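User: structure tokens for this one?
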Amino acid sequence: HVQLVESGGGSVQAGGSLRLSCAASGLTDSHNCMGWFRQAPGKKRERVARIDSDGAIRYADSVKGRFTISRDNADNTVYLQMNSLKSEDTAVYYCLTDGFWGQGTQVTVS
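Assistant:
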């Protein structure tokens, strides 16, 4: 039974920082691609960042230079460090790996 549990969301003022975590359990392969997505009200879910099994990283243009994705394969955990947050970063953030989604964590920037 695969389970992804996100944490670290919250409310922050513009310019602030948050660090999201996503702990995966039940995976048969701990070296899958892992990614962060977000969905703002009334908008489509969009990919924010991904980190491949070989460590290759990609970011959405809107977060380049502000967000950093990393992973700990030993703990099957992926992180998203978010700095210089803007109001347009407000969304529910989800992690994805191996076709499984987490429940999401709310990030609100005011």
